[in-house]
Design a protein that fits this description.
The protein is of the alpha/beta class. It is about 35% helix and about 25% strand. It has eight helices and eleven strands. The strands form two sheets. Strands 1, 2, 3, 4, 5, 6, 7, 10 and 11 form a nine-stranded mixed β-sheet that branches. Strand 2, helix 4 and strand 3 form a beta-alpha-beta unit.
Amino acid sequence: MDTAVADAISEAVLERCGAIPVSTWSDALDGMGIQGVMEGLELRSGNGRICGPAVTARQIPGRLGEFAKAEFAVGRLVSAATAGTVLVVDVGGQPISTLGGLAAYGTQKQGAAGVVIDGACRDVDEIRATGLWLASRWVAPTTGKGRLRLLPIGVTVTAGGVTVSQGDLIVGDETGIVVVPRAVLEEALARAERIMAVDAEVERRLHAGETFAAAGAATGYLPPPKD
């Protein structure tokens, strides 16, 4: 993993974070008054849960020929997606492809945990063949060459309506994608683990024969019934 990105998050903390589903993270952030769930992005490739610090990038969209093809800089983008990180690309939600099959293969070979694009990808069959975990707003054949200009890596971006800074924690699964701001990670993790503990106790009680209503009320998972 790139220590320049992840030096503030230990492997032990990342392991704990990766054990927590996105829905639980969402609940924990709700309790802190933070909107962290990305909206409008769909999982296109990969499965299971990813968890890692964000590597952020922004591509300015334009008309065909507005930028030199070299400004697309997909090689620089892929190189930034180092082992264990999640590449988050802000294309302003435009249906212009940031990543195709070959670039996805290069990203997968570097060991990146995943890719999140508020824009488009293409060659979905090829991306799926690499096993790379990738979510995007669009699937579109339109190339970014000549249409996208890459800004310096590490700028603060917006993806799925959520602000993402370099090093923020990204967690994704089949339910969705959540951004946990690095500044509140310790508190959010503690909240999420408490929620997980309550969930586990509700499940234990259900297996023991209690009703959902009784188990939920006993653990605080559900509010007590009104008289």
